[in-house]
């Protein structure tokens, strides 16, 4: 299997995770298609983020029944994407999400606009997969440290990375055809923290 195909498969795996399919978890690692995908969050934090997403999404959808709202939590930083009918709903959703227990920060990227079509959402999913594949192909990036979300051609990068890793990932994402903008929703750690973490996992 060549590198390109392997990268594409990993990207599809990543997009599957974004779509909410349940991977097999073993000791804090995601196992699938013969690959072990490590996560820089603790197992407890991963579960906490999942709980935040479930609660926040439920509250948000009660407030904006005509909208399309997606909630993504990483290390208790919550990104809200999608569409709502008006500014009132946009502000109400942000307030509701911020009130969820253990939420640290809310990044509100909701837009006041009609909901995206199925075709537009499919294009965004493909774009996110392409960005993920590009991160894998780069070789000098820990691609599994990033969560990639694409909405309306805007790519959001989530994860726990160093400033060096963040800059490199943004540069890579910007080169992917179809990407209109890259937004960092990253939890920045020091190089010393990274060295201690990777050393502990060896």
How would you summarize this macromolecular structure in one to three sentences?
By secondary structure, this protein is of the alpha/beta class.
Report mean pLDDT, rounded to a whole number. Answer: 86
Strand content: 25-35%
Overall structural class, as computed from helix and strand content, comes to alpha/beta
* Basic shape: globular
Low-pLDDT residue intervals, each spanning 5 or more residues: 1-36
What pattern of helices and strands is seen along the backbone?
HEEEHEEHEEHEEHEH
Architecture of the largest domain in CATH?
Answer: 2-Layer Sandwich
CATH class designation of the largest domain: Alpha Beta
Helix content: 40-55%
Rg from Cα: 17 Å
Enter the CATH topology name of the largest domain.
Histidine-containing Protein, Chain: A
Distance linking N and C termini: 27 Å
Query: What is the number of independent domains?
Result: 2
Q: Largest sheet, described in full? A: 4 strands, mixed
Count of extended strands: 10
Count of discrete alpha- or pi-helical segments spanning 4 or more residues: 6
């Amino acid at each position: 299997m060549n590198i390109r195909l392997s990268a594409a498969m990993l990207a599809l795996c990543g997009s599957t995770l974004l779509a909410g399919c349940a991977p097999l978890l073993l000791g804090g690692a995601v196992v699938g298609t013969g690959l072990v995908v490590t996560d820089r969050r603790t197992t407890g934090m991963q579960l906490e983020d999942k709980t935040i997403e479930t609660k926040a999404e439920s509250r948000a959808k009660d407030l904006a029944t005509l909208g399309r709202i997606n909630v993504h939590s990483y290390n208790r930083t919550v990104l809200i994407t999608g569409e709502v009918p008006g500014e009132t709903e946009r502000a109400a959703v942000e307030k509701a999400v911020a009130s969820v227990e253990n939420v640290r920060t809310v990044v509100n990227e909701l837009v006041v606009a009609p909901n995206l079509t199925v075709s537009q959402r499919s294009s965004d999913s493909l774009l996110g997969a392409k960005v993920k594949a590009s991160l894998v192909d780069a070789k000098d990036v820990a691609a599994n440290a990033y969560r990639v979300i694409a909405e309306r051609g805007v790519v959001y990068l989530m994860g726990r990375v160093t400033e060096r890793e963040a800059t490199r990932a943004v540069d890579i994402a910007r080169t992917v055809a179809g990407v209109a903008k890259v937004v960092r929703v990253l939890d920045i750690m020091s190089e010393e923290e990274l060295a201690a973490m990777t050393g502990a996992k060896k």
